[in-house]
Amino acid sequence: MEGVVFDCSDASSTGSAEGCQWELDIDPSVNGVNTEMDVVVTAESSECLQQEICSDADGGIFFEESMSSGSSMSVVTDPDAELNGADCDCSAGDTVATDERISTLVSAFRAGVFMVEFLQQSFGEHHLRQSSLNWLHLFSSQCSGIASAEQAYHVLEASLEAVLGWPKQWQQASVCEINAKCIDILKKKVPDDCCIFMDIFESVPASWDSKLGPAPTIQERWEALCSAWQGNIKLKCRAHGGLCRQKKSTLNVAGTPCQPWSRCGKKLGGNDRRSDVTLAWLCWLLHAQPAVAIHENVVGFDSSIITTCVGSLYSVIILPVKPGNAGFVFAGRPRQFAVLVRKDLVITHDMLRVLHAASEYINKRVGCSQVSACMAVTSDEERLQCENKARKKRG
Question: CA 115 → CA 162, 350, 381, distances in Å?
Answer without folding.
Answer: 12, 17, 29
